[in-house]
Amino acid sequence: TSVSASRQESPVIDFDGLSRPSVGTRQRLEESAEEKAARLERMKGAVKTLLECVGEDPAREGLLATPERYAKAMMTFTQGYEQNVFDIVNGAIFQEGHSEMVVVKNIDIFSLCEHHLVPFTGKVHIGYIPNNAVIGISKLPRIADMFSRRLQIQERLTKEIANAIFDVLRPQGVAVVIESSHLCMVMRGVQKTNSTTITSCMLGCFERREKTRNEFLSLINVNRQ
């Protein structure tokens, strides 16, 4: 079985930064400074409307600057829409004879649940086995950050990170595990404050070989008590 045969083909990976393309995403990516300022004004108006709808007074002192603060914060929270994998990697792939597992674990991620627009935060663990090439070690956290700085669900985020690394590096295999806490479960609904959601994506030799998969899980200590 070839390495590529085990890759999970997915339409969510493309390299112009638009994992889920829409007219609005393209406009944001290409807009001028004036258009960016106009976008911020529209967002400020929307936040003011939300404040009014929940029964608040946007004109009171404590909320006067809130629409602008929130609009700017939301642009930061979703800055991954303005990034792409090729620019992040920036040619930092090196031909090396290393063929053993490479693991970067406990990478902090911060994202927004696309269902409720509230945060989920956690750790991502990434492993890969090179196929005569390695990637600059700092690029793995940056790839994870790019995809997390978008409206997400954890399951898709896990696959996006794994597929992107697989596509740019073409290794023998890639493994990604995310452990996170979702504020939509803590603040509303079931209100389970101590729950952790764990998702994984195994590609190539990690998918085919139980021993390789178990070595990775042991190294990241995902089954710790």
UniProtKB/TrEMBL annotation:
One Pfam family cited in the UniProt record for this chain: GTP_cyclohydroI
InterPro entries associated with the record: GTP-CH-I_C/QueF, GTP-CH-I_N, GTP_CycHdrlase_I, GTP_CycHdrlase_I_CS, GTP_CycHdrlase_I_dom
GO molecular function: GTP binding; GTP cyclohydrolase I activity; zinc ion binding
Enzyme category, top tier: hydrolase
CDD domains the UniProt entry points to: GTP_cyclohydro1
Keywords: Allosteric enzyme, Folate biosynthesis, GTP-binding, Hydrolase, Nucleotide-binding
Record-linked PROSITE patterns: GTP_CYCLOHYDROL_1_1 (PS00859), GTP_CYCLOHYDROL_1_2 (PS00860)
Regions that span the bilayer: none
Any one GO CC term of the record: cytoplasm
Functional description taken from the UniProt entry: GTP cyclohydrolase 1 is the first enzyme in the biosynthetic pathway leading to folic acid.
Family, per entry: Belongs to the GTP cyclohydrolase I family.
Designated name of the protein: GTP cyclohydrolase 1
Source organism: Hypocrea jecorina (strain QM6a) (Trichoderma reesei)
